[in-house]
Amino acid sequence: MTESKHDIESREDIVIMVNTFYERVRQDELIGPVFESRINDNWAPHLATMHDFWYTLLFGKEAYRGNPFAKHIGLPIQGEHFQQWLRLFNTTLDELFEGSRKELAKKKAASIAEVFQAKLNGRLIGGK
């Protein structure tokens, strides 16, 4: 019998979500190389930061402080990269969890992608 899914309920669930997602990112032909070019062999610190980031977003606990957008400036990313990032993120969530916090994570991710794209486009248009 297969284990039933549950909602994202703990930091441990965040760790599973983030680690599973980024394992898929690293294997993805479109966005994997973009992440590898920026992160290189520093995946452990990146994953720890992402655990804190998503824990803060989904549980309202202040574990993350920083400017996530700043890390993305200068990356060769466009709309299709954000679409693939969201596709992988949502697939990971759907396979692992069910419930309202999972849906909140999807909404937060979509909002992040939208804001980052707008800022990157604005920066390119306004800065040149």
Descriptive account of the structure:
It contains 5 helices and no strands. With 128 residues, it is mostly helical. It has one domain: Globins (Globin-like). The longest helix has 28 residues. The chain is globular. The N and C termini lie far apart (58 Å). This is Group III truncated hemoglobin. It holds the Pfam family Bac_globin. It comes from Terrimonas ginsenosidimutans.
Notable characteristics:
mainly alpha, Globin-like, 5 helices, disordered C terminus
CATH topology name, in short, is: Globin-like
Rg from alpha-carbon coordinates: 15 Å
User: What is the H/E order?
Assistant: HHHHH
CATH architect. name: Orthogonal Bundle
Broad CATH class: Mainly Alpha
Our measurement of the CA-to-CA distance between the termini, rounded to an integer number of angstroms, reads 58 Å
Instruction: Give a quick account of the main beta sheet: strands, pairing sense, barrel closure.
Output: none
User: Total strand count, please?
Assistant: 0
> What is the residue-mean pLDDT, rounded to a whole number?
87
Q: How many structural domains in the coordinates?
A: 1
User: How helix-rich are the residues, as a percent range?
Assistant: 55-70%
Low-confidence stretches: 124-128
CATH homologous superfamily assignment: Globins
H/I helix tally: 5
- Indicate the overall shape: globular
